[in-house]
Amino acid sequence: MRSLTTMGRVRPLALLVAGVLAAMMLPGSVSANPQFIGGDAVREFLDVGRTAVPRAECGPGSMPESGLQGDVPAADRDSGRSTQGYRCNMSMVGNYTGRGAGITSTSFEHCAYMGSFFPGNLFAEGRGVQVLDVSDPANPRPTVTLTEPAMLGSTWESLKVHADRKLLVGTGVPAGVGVGYLSVYDISDCAYPRLLNPGAGTNLLMPLPITTHEAGFSPDGTTYWASGLTPGFVSAVDISDPVHPRVIWQGLTGIESHGMGFSPDGTRMYISALSGFTVLDVGAIQRREPAPQVRHLGRIFWTDGQATQHSIAVTYDGRPYLYTVDEGGSGGVKLIDVSDDTAPKVTTKIKLEINLPQNQDAAIGSSMGGGAFAYESHYCAADRPDDPTALACGWISSGIRVFDVRDPGDIHEIAYFNPPARTGRFADLWNSPHALASVIGFPALGVIPAVRAVLEGDFDPSTALTSRTDNIFGDLSTDWCMSPPEWRGDQLYVACADNGFMVLQLHNDVYSPPANQQSTVGS
Question: Measuring CA to CA, which residue among 479, 484, 475 is closest to residue 438?
Answer without folding.
Answer: 475
